[in-house]
Amino acid sequence: MLQKIIIGILAAAVISVCSIWGYTVWQRTQAPPPVAVAASPKPAEAAKADTAIAPVAAPLPFEQADGTHFTYNYLPPRDPDLLAMYDMARKIDVLRQLPEIDQLDGWLMLPRPINYVAAQCDTVNIFYARDKGDIVLCYEMLELLVRQGLTIAQANGGSARDQLDYLLANLRFLLLHETGHALVDLLDLPATGREEDAVDQLATTLMLSFVSTDESRGDIARKLQLASNFFLITDDGQHDMARYADEHSVGAQRFFNLQCMVYGSDPDKYPSIVASGRLPAARAQRCAEESRRITRNWMRLIGPHIAPRHRLSAQEEQARIEEIERKQAQNRNAADAR
Ligand SMILES: [Zn+2]
């Protein structure tokens, strides 16, 4: 019974996740930026300053051009109850702890930067604000994920480390989902289906595709499982017509779509997803093809926007992956030896 009540509260709380109305609330509550008042230089001084400006270094040759870099900001909350979230976010530097966003930073040519902002919103939300190019992580959302992580860790006899893993895995997926909205907007990427489903697919594709040296593919699959749990525990199955009419699929559908992508990325490696009942066998049959098609299509959409200096030939890409896999194996061996 208690568990049902908790799930009900969580479901109600996340109703506005990734909804733009959260932004209008947030915008209203943000103080206007302070205007710097500087004394105008006298004409003679201005002329001297002009001549003193040294020319900036010559632009890089096209093939060395770097991509667009992102910005990261933590805005202090007005509500003292959210100070703990503000302090924690800054201490962990949570916006820079997300490996795929770190890799995307400077990798793509965008018409303007994406700004990752942590702020008080007066609602539980995380969203992309088209007009400014901001991706806003609300402290209220952070608080919800911390509470969920604690509830799950306590129920399973987990540790503080498990709670942090849950928090970071969910932030990683949700911020990548919002990054997907930003890329669709900034790069005018075509999507003929529901954008909400498409950017869930992009978030999963990025996590499965960007291999790093300090995480194995199994680690990534485990983190995607943690992120998919969020959709399940925030879906109590009690849907009215308004919920079906929503731009998002219902939580359980998002959960199964994610399972299908992970399982389909390597069915031989993840048979337990089907064996444990997290993915029905009937759906699993087509997941390898579904996962391959989605990954390929997203890479085709993004590929042309990779900055020249980061473009690799097929051989260079293969060599890079082999080098990463060699380092991953070294790390595993070192961990086994300890
Ligand atoms: Zn969305």
Commentary on this structure:
With 338 residues, the protein is mostly helical. The chain has 15 helices and four strands. It has helices spanning 2-13, 21-29, 43-52, 83-92, 99-104, 139-155, 160-186, 195-209, 217-233, 241-245, 251-265, 272-275, 281-284, 287-302, 314-337, and strands at residues 71-74, 115-119, 126-129, 134-138. The protein has a four-stranded mixed sheet with strand order 1-2-4-3, sandwiched between helices. α6 runs antiparallel to α7 (160-186) and α8 packs parallel to α11. Zinc ion is lined by residues 18, 177, 181, 196, 199.
Name the features.
338 residues, mainly alpha, single chain, binds zinc ion, 57% helix, 15 helices
Set down the secondary structure blueprint.
Elements (H helix, E strand, L loop, with lengths): L1 H12 L7 H9 L13 H10 L18 E4 L8 H10 L6 H6 L10 E5 L6 E4 L4 E5 H17 L4 H27 L8 H15 L7 H17 L7 H5 L5 H15 L6 H4 L5 H4 L2 H16 L11 H24 L1
Helix pairs in contact: 6-7, 7-8, 7-9, 8-11, 8-14, 9-11, 11-14
Bound molecules: zinc ion (ZN).
The site of zinc ion has 5 residues, from helix 7 and helix 8.
Secondary-structure-based class equals mainly alpha
* Strand and helix order: HHHEHHEEEHHHHHHHHHH
Q: Strands across the major sheet, in which order?
A: 1-2-4-3
As a percent range, the share of helical residues equals 55-70%
- Structure ligands: zinc ion
Protein name: DUF4344 domain-containing metallopeptidase
InterPro entries: DUF4344 (IPR025644)
